[in-house]
Specification:
Number of domains: 1
CATH architecture: Up-down Bundle
CATH topology: Four Helix Bundle (Hemerythrin (Met), subunit A)
Helix content: over 70%
Low-confidence stretches: none
Mean pLDDT: 89
Number of helices: 6
Number of strands: 0
Length: 205
């Protein structure tokens, strides 16, 4: 039972990979496979990608909760969990951008990706010098906000695939709310990145 949290985290990595490939294939980005897909199959892949994203996001909560509940917190799990989060978030954002360029999505997505890679580099440098950068409470909320915002963006990008109402009275407010949520996630992401940067600077200088 104590291996269950790490199994869930590992599953998140696999599910995230499937999600990204499904989005890329639906967007025409997978050689040979994309050429064989009908429009209905592309839409089906978009729906499956969203379901995979939701399942992977749920495991992000349960693996940590189970690790504490079962007293199964491990060094491997502590390393694997943030990697799983970043692969899920980055894979979803890249998949979204593959579905179609949208200026209101590209910039906040790029800022989020920049922060994730920068913090990963800081952690690696810090670990090499024996400096730990613990996850802050705001960073935990940041991950939740990212997942909710990205999930909403996936629905918006696959609106027709889910056969949702096409009336402007529905689409317009949904569009503004979804993009606003992603921008909010990007701002919080940058704030937490600045916090990690300052903590690393003080510890390493």
């Amino acid at each position: 039972m104590k291996a269950l949290p790490n199994i869930l985290t590992s599953a998140r990595l696999i599910i995230a990979l499937f999600m990204f490939v499904a989005l890329a294939a639906a967007a025409g980005g997978v050689p040979w496979l994309s050429d064989q897909l009908s429009v209905d199959q592309q839409m089906s892949l978009q729906r499956w990608a969203f379901r995979a994203f939701v399942i992977a996001a749920v495991t992000d909560f349960f693996d940590g909760w189970l690790a504490r509940k079962l007293d199964a917190v491990s060094v491997w799990g502590a390393i694997l969990d943030p990697i799983g989060d970043k692969i899920l978030v980055c894979g979803a954002l890249l998949g979204l951008m593959a579905l179609g360029p949208n200026p209101l999505v590209i910039l906040p997505s790029g800022l989020i990706l920049f922060r994730e890679f920068a913090v990963s580099a800081l952690r690696e440098v810090g670990a090499g010098r024996g400096v730990k950068l613990p996850v802050t409470l705001l960073a935990k909320w940041k991950t939740t906000l990212q997942l909710v915002a990205i999930g909403a963006e996936m629905i918006l990008a696959s609106w027709s695939a889910f056969h949702l109402p096409t009336a402007s009275s529905v689409v317009t407010p949904a569009t503004y709310a979804t993009h606003g949520l992603l921008w909010l996630a990007a701002v919080v992401t940058l704030i937490t990145g600045a916090q990690y940067w300052e903590a690393a600077r003080k510890a390493l200088v």
